[in-house]
Here is the input.
Amino acid sequence: MVRDLRALALGLVAWASALAASGGWVPLTLAALVAGALVARRRRATGRSWAGLAVALLVTGAVTCSTVLGSEAVAAGPVHDLAAANAPVTAVLVLSSDPVPSAGRFARQAWARAEVREVRSRHRRVHVRAPVLALLPLPVAGLVRGTRVRVAGSLRPSDRREQAGVLVVRGEITVLGGPGLLERAAGRVRAGVREGVSGQPTAARALVPALVDGEDGDLPDEVVADFRTSGMTHLLAVSGTNLTLIVGCLLLVARWVGVRARALVVVGLLGVVGFVLLAGPEPSVLRAAAMGSIALLGLSSGGRERGLRALGIGVVVLLLLDPGLARSAGFALSAIATGGILLLAPGWRDALRRWLPRWAAEAISVPLAAQLVCTPVVAAISGQVSLVAVAANLVAGPLVAPATVLGLAGGLVAVVAPAPGRVVAAPAGWCASGLVAVASHAAALPVPSIGWTPDLLSLVVLVAACGGIGCVLPWVLGRRRVSLLVVGVLTLAVLKPLPTPGWPPAGWVLVACSIGQGDGLVLRTGARSGLVVDAGPDPRAMDQCLSRLEIEEVPVVFLTHFHADHVDGLAGVLEGRRVGAVLTSPLADPAGGARAVARLAAQHRIGVRAVLVGESATVGQVQWQVLAPASATFSDSESPPNDASVVLLADVRGVRILLMGDQERPSQAALRRTYPDLHADVLKVAHHGSSKQDVRLIGSLGARLALISDGVDNDYGHPAPSTLDLLSDAGLQVHRTDREGDLAVVVGDGGRLSVVSRGGAVGRP
Here is the structure.
């Protein structure tokens, strides 16, 4: 049966128009429309075809205008100009989100989305409406979404097009007014949800609010990593699933009490509005509400056709309201998953029903369709393709609904009576603990995912592969023996790790492990032996990188400083390997990180001590020397732990490698002054490629290669464009773990240096 896909095609036209306009390709969009008109005229199109072309032209023009005007409003306003000048300002803000303490770092600030309503710089005072990212000093108790505040600080440029700048707040925050009545009510419900699960384990206590309203700021990094690896990341953000579960449950209750016909529509609309108020009227929430409503429509009788039409129209409306969604990974995943479910899942369900009951066929076909169509987008974001996603989501599926619905119900009760609320929400916490266990066990499998380099050619190959699988699947799913054989082969592939062809490459001297947003480096001392410099944020990722390199012995582990993204993965280095000693920064700050390192080393009976500047040693093929820090304190430091990072100069088979920690400008300048003749062949760039680089140091090193260790789509905007330009201008060839995965520096014939990448970048989407 030929389906009416005109509305869906219109949505794709709107999406392409928004992407073209945001990329400055407006002439290309207009040229495509003119070409369409010429083709239609040449083929003597019917009146209906001309009408369709007119509608496409109208939508394209509207979305293009909305995109251009929206970009101009942000990029050409006074806030953007002040940010470009790094100007000190006094501003009146309205918080668009609850403040979230910085995760995984020295927590001295929190971030929140905000809208500038008034800005004053020197003698100029302007009333505006401009979106910014506000970095607020801790504590932020009492500050919630909708609060109006007056702050002083400095504006800086933002790497995100939808933001006019980044406002770094310093000093006291003056509250001018609280949120409105509806915002206060939503805030009390969110607080009630947290209160309802307050007695649950840490991970469950953080996961239930994430399921109910997308509030995932308290989730431990290892839980986030497990959900990402197991293909369950969609549960951690506001999505159409949240709305479908909440509003669907509300409609079931309404039917049970006798509500019928149009009154059910009113109940559904009220549920959608309530969900938006609860999670906040942000673009991601509005997108989730739209996609969830479309999914509900698709579940109704005859809803497949209506769902496809609603999807196309919904995409157009959302892009008109917020053209920036066209570049949003969340929007792409939501729209593509919804389309995949509506287009593919019914046919696959019918094929499976030849040998499975209907409920089982639907339970398999829906996540399978969503996962297949989203795989290229997920690979582009995370650099990996999950092999356990469908199975993990099948097991987790029955736990999601009670965790979400009972979490919200317990929160509503806890607003009035906390103790009964905790009773109602207790099963939600148990289900959330089950979800954490599913993600943890799936991620712990020998091969839960495979790396996939997120470049254009690789993604085109992946799209073609997914398309081929989609064409073959109906035939496979309709045959029990073939389906079971495929499941058996995939299970074997997950449980039995296969060697990575060509890895590690012959002649490698240094590997920068792709372990997310953090540092994890290995200097080769000999066969199955290497020095480790920092251990990243994730023990499992660090252990897997060392296992791929076949490292069984680690004579020394250097921890440049005690931030979580450098030390939290230490357990992955120590477990199952012979480790000689752990050498650290002389500044035990943050104290929690230093205590955790000491405790873990004591458990493995390994000595820990601070480095001494100037000390050196030779271990196998590696000669190393500690260059810094000469002092544990810098009077002008914005982050003392960063400036007290250990700096190593290593020589491996004649290759000089400078390994920086997270040094800021003061300590980099001190290093340059202390060692004016410092030279290196390879530079591990400081602080994951942040903008705070000493230009003269980089320019004087004479290095040929630069390695940047960072995570995909990290929250800090690393590496900074200014740093990439600086490295390029200095003549360095730049390689990044967020785009290339594990990076190996290889010495070839005649001492020629090259970099071999393995793919499989790790990050937090």
